[in-house]
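Below is a filled-in request sheet from our internal design queue. Each sheet records the structural input a requester submitted and the sequence that came back. We keep these sheets so that new team members can see what a complete request looks like end to end.

REQUESTER: design group, bay 2
PRIORITY: normal
MODE: inverse folding
CHAIN LENGTH: 169
BACKBONE (tokenized):
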């Protein structure tokens, strides 16, 4: 069965469920979450999306980004996906939420009400190869330099979310 996303209004009022692919093909607003993890040096954990992902394969993005399931809070979904993608657990704090719409190629759109969480992480990861091909920590300055020099190496939503994140520091 295709995974479903929770459709919402701009005020986060639930409107129903839809297959994830259909929501992305039609650019319909749905719930999402993004997790930024930092080590003791203040470096951000990035993940490289698996080559088998249906959109944005082999691109770098934040530690975890996905969608809560029906009857799952944003935080519960974020913790579930950290475990499923990276094999880790970490305490998360909500930072902000915002709306965005991004063309992710192949006639697919991310149109999301995105709740952003941050947390600290210094341990080992257990990558799920269907989701993630590799991870690395990077300083914010090096990340900005890489994004400027090679923007195609990063997911469209990560560029948007990172810009929004900096405004909330």
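RETURNED SEQUENCE:
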């Amino acid at each position: 069965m295709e995974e479903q996303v929770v459709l919402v209004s701009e005020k986060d009022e639930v409107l129903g469920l839809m297959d994830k692919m259909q929501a992305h093909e039609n650019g319909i607003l749905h719930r999402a979450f993004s997790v930024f993890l930092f080590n003791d040096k203040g470096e951000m954990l990035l993940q490289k999306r698996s080559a088998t992902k249906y959109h944005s394969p082999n691109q770098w993005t934040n530690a975890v980004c996905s969608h809560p399931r029906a009857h799952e809070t944003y935080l519960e979904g974020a913790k579930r996906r950290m475990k499923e993608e990276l094999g880790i657990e970490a305490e998360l704090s909500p930072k902000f939420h915002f709306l965005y719409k991004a063309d992710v190629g192949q006639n697919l759109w991310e149109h999301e009400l995105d709740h952003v969480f941050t947390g600290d992480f210094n341990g080992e990861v257990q990558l799920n190869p269907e989701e993630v091909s590799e991870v690395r920590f990077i300083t914010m300055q090096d990340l900005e330099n890489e994004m400027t020099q090679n923007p195609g190496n990063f997911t469209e939503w990560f560029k948007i979310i990172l810009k929004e994140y900096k405004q909330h520091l």
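SHEET NOTES:
- The helical segments are 20-26, 74-86, 140-149, 156-167.
- The mean pLDDT is 96.
FILED BY: M.R.
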